[in-house]
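Quick check before the chapter quiz. The format below is the same one you will see on the exam, so make sure you can read both the input and the output lines.
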Amino acid sequence: MRLKDKIALVTGAASGFGQGIAERFGREGAQVVVADMNREGAEAVARSIGHGAIAVGGDVSKGPDVQAMVDAAAKAFGGLDIVVNNAGTTHRNGPILDVDEATFDKVYAVNVKSIFWMTKAAVPLLRQQGRGGSIINISSTAGIRPRPGLVWYNGTKGAVNTITQAMAQELAKDNIRVNAICPVMGATALLTDFMGVEDTPENRARFVGTIPLGRMSTPHDIANACVWLGEEQSSFITGVLLPVDGGRTA
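Here is the expected output.
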């Protein structure tokens, strides 16, 4: 098992990419904190993983909630090795002027401020342990090759990418690696908002047509990349923006 004896915290883990990551981590031998605003959903995922997984509710845009997630890992499992900042949201694809201030603030709070809070909560523990760690930010191809209609969402993922590279430089002395995974669009609960049109086979085909390998990303794809960035085989990898995108950004 590639993550045996590792302790991992995954946010937004009640569904979509986060669920896939958390479940795969469990199969690879990690103890997993399944964190999500949807506490009931998080508990269901933790049960599916079985022994060695706990559920924690909370809002990643709120500092005390994020601290509680990290504290839960320390209390239940004795520490922390891997953090996956997966929780995210978007505004609906559409004209730049149609996004209101409340929506703008929410997208930046969930996608960017969450990393600020997680850094404040997790890095002191990782430093105290003295064994390094792996922080994995789930970004997007939108931060590398943005699509029109998602301007403010694109901006959050550009921020995530820059933050990732800067954190990697600053935390390297602590052997804390920081990388980002940049998925192309996947069939998650946010798909309709990303497309800005109804989720029909015809509309999907139009977006899939922009992906050279001819399909959307899946939780399995993203989980594969997270396992690699969390295990010792990638111990010399930090500051990388890894597209998992079927060639979209090539």
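If your answer matched, good. The CA atoms of residues 105 and 176 lie 29 Å apart.
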